[in-house]
Amino acid sequence: MAAAGELRFDDRAAIVTGAGRGLGNAYARLLAARGAAVIVNDRDRELAEGLAVEIEAEGGRAVADGSDVSTPDGAGQLIKTAVGEFGRLDVIVNNAGVVLREPITELSVDAIDRTIAVNLRGTLLVAHAAWPHLESAGHGRIVNATSASGLIGNPQASSYGATKAGIVGFTRVLAQEGQAVGIHANAISPLALTRMTDTLGIPGWTAETMGPGLVAPVVAYLAHEECELNGEVLSAGGGRVARYFVGLNMGWTSPGELRPEDVRDNLDSIVSLDDYIVPRTTVDELGLLDAGGKGGGDE
Ligand SMILES: NC(=O)c1ccc[n+]([C@@H]2O[C@H](COP(=O)([O-])OP(=O)(O)OC[C@H]3O[C@@H](n4cnc5c(N)ncnc54)[C@H](O)[C@@H]3O)[C@@H](O)[C@H]2O)c1
User: Fold this and answer.
1) What is the pTM of this model?
2) Which helix (H) or strand (E) segment is 244 a member of?
3) Closest to 215 (Cα-Cα) out of 186, 187, 240
4) pLDDT tens digits for 52-91?
5) Ligand 1 pocket member 192 (CB < 6 A)
6) Which of 131, 160, 229 is nearest to 188 (CA)?
7) Rounded to the nearest whole angstrom, what is the distance from the C-alpha of residue 141 to the centroid of ligand 1?
8) Ligand 1 within 6 A of 44 CB?
9) CB 235 within 8 A of CB 241
10) How far is the CA of 179 from the centre of ligand 1 (A)?
11) Residue 194 alpha carbon to ligand 1 centre in Å
12) Which residues of the chain have pLDDT under 70?
């Protein structure tokens, strides 16, 4: 990808959910500073209004929205506000999220339902309501917030981790469905000191070394129409930017019947990291079946 000028968002409209504080606040500020008209969404309306006023005072364009993205009415209202205010919609940053930490032995139905409602249902509802407008824009960009807790797991984060893994699957489906209409969807796995993480007391994490401002440029890049990535997960924190990926190794193919003992006896090949692909679509996995002489067919 060729390096060119500054990445600007003039004449573009963006929604950042959960933008009242933390990471979303930094994302909204940066997009506005780069010329975007921004809907600052947060269920805490006062915070959203405060940030919108600050952005406007700095010469940017922003409108506050207090919708709760976890409900169809809230997500619908949010999109309606954006299109009503700006007449278009180019970028969605699905950032709103909640974490309720509890070990699996103490997992409550309330924690499961609340986490799924905000993180997963909210992300799906907003993307779904925004889709026709992003399609009209011709270069829609969706950035969804995942987490290391979903990608690699974290103790005491079972419902949270489940939703964040679900967001990756959703992002990859959107990427494949959006390709034909110019919509790209990617996910950000951030690491930053915010209300969500400050009680964890992670050594070395300070506002300077791990601030949300060190994640925002990555989200702004993924939100830009020049961004060619689609269906990827970028990890960002402390100034480091990296790629998470799903790998699939060549595995081991049984020449005949497959018994549990065959799995035990061939485990080294089955879990080997010597030779693997990074599949883009399910067709790539079926191709490995073909390579093993089993024929993936064309399902
Ligand atoms: N901070 C990190 O290191 C980290 C790590 C991994 C993932 N994340 C993800 O990044 C995102 C932002 O995290 P943060 O650390 O800034 O958290 P935060 O708690 O500081 O901010 C989240 C914001 O979302 C808002 N919100 C919650 N539910 C909402 C709803 N239903 N509708 C609208 N707004 C709602 C909250 O009011 C809050 O202002 C989250 O999705 C989080 O899971 C953060």
Assistant:
1) 0.96
2) strand 240-244
3) 240
4) 999 999 999 999 999 999 999 999 999 999 999 999 999 9
5) yes
6) 229
7) 20
8) yes
9) yes
10) 28
11) 9
12) 1-3, 292-299
